[in-house]
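A quick word before the example. In earlier lectures we treated sequence and structure as two separate objects. From today on, think of them as two lines of the same record. Here is Fasciclin domain-containing protein written that way.
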Amino acid sequence: MNPRTWLVAGTVLTATLGLAACSGDSDSESDAVPSVSTTTAPANLSVEQANLVGPGCPAYVAQVPSGKGSVEGMANDPVVTAAGNNPMLKTLTEAVSGKLNPEVDLSTTLDGKDYTVFAPVDTAFAQVPAKRMAKLKKDRDALVKTLTYHVVSGELAPAKVIGEQLTVEGGTLRVTGKGNQIKVDGANVICGGIKTANATVYLIDKVLEPSG
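And the structure line, produced from the sequence above:
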């Protein structure tokens, strides 16, 4: 596997957020996220000020209003460190830092360039079948391939991310929709456009699987 890798850069909206993943049409979306306010956020940076997209953004901002895992705090650290401070990205952080599979530590690689990271939240990893998860823990190439499939070179803001995107793994992701209804290979963007010191992060509700 080509070690130019990275990732991080997870599914149904986390239980702590109290959200459900949105579907593709506006009627379903309103049913999926009935309890989320889109106008208030008790944080140093509001959803609007940070130019975030996704139905889970207000809940994320409310859950982590300040500190290193907040929208403002993540902007100060490189992506792996920032992800480690986010309470929804613990499993992803383990996967890219050698704790899931001791043979795979992409921290230096991922922190070394500018990236767009489609980051599966913890509840996304919880939905991965046990057989696939066991393989990722033991098979270095399989884990690197999976992780780098979630990473695109260069930072893509919400206004630029739509379309086909070439991944670090070498495959192509299809990003569709707009506003609060963006999907990545069918996975829902919970909250996207989150800045770190070297990356733009999109929290997603599914662990993507590269073809081949």
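Notice the following. The two ends are 13 Å apart (CA to CA). We will return to this example when we discuss secondary structure assignment.
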